[in-house]
Amino acid sequence: MANLDKNYDVIIIGGGPNGLTAAGYLARSGAKTLLLERHHEGGGGLVTEEFSGFRFNTHAKLMLMMDCMPPYTDMKLEDWGCRYVIPEAAVSLLTRDGRALTLFSDIQRSAKSIAKFSTDDAERYIGLMEDWYTIVNEALIPATYSLPLPMLDMVASYQESELGRVVNEMAEETFLETLDAAGFENEIVSTALLYMGTMFGVDPEDGLGFLLPLFVNRVLHSAVVLSGSHQLAASLSRFA
User: Each residue of 168-187: pLDDT tens digit?
Assistant: First the structure.
């Protein structure tokens, strides 16, 4: 601490993923930045511990936005050793009669698995995922990484396009209502989709139905950082 300068443009308290990312962008823009973290290293929940020669992610395991988050490309994190894979199989539900419904990042492979339970639902799934992927990729993910608007302004802006109006309508629905509208016949299929939406703690009877497509899409495309989640923190720390 004795070697620290007295003046900084920005002081960030907390070296978790958000603090590291903010510090990285500020430093890259030329701001004199100080990042303070009480732990012996930054990363927050990006913790990887080694036990008996094996590495374990003791908190954050799956990176839901890894393949689309701007910092990965903006800061060229791959060049600093942060590499990831997206497992082909994302979710699998086992039934009491010994069958398994497995959902993949690939829509067609998921549909083949669903067809073992319901051929009609397999076709419904393809159509639904195509619609949901459009909502996620063209509306929700871009909104995640842009400056937030006041709520009423955001609603008004969405009303200007057909896709935006769909998002506004889904915002008034519960997860259950959004899922019921899909018309799935088999409860195993519905259960798998609902699980991916509610595993984050959202009450299925609450509103914000537009989050269900986002959560399902992101779980199906969740990434695992090679060498452990802390490798993401280590690469971000190069800029902090």
Answer: 999 999 999 999 999 999 99
pTM: 0.89
Least confident of 4-8, 45-49, 103-107, 180-184: 4-8
Identify whether the C-beta of residue 24 lies closer than 8 Å to the C-beta of residue 48. Answer: no
77 φ, ψ to 5°? Answer: -65, -25
The DSSP H or E segment spanning 13 is strand 10-13
Interatomic CA distance for residues 27 and 32, integer angstroms: 6
Rg of the chain over all Cα atoms, to the nearest angstrom: 21
Residue 230: other Cβ atoms inside 10 A: 23
| Half-sphere exposure for 124 (CA within 13 Å, toward CB) | 18
Instruction: Check pLDDT > 90 for residue 6.
Output: no
Question: Would you place residue 240 in the very low, low, confident or very high pLDDT band (cuts 50, 70, 90)?
Answer: low
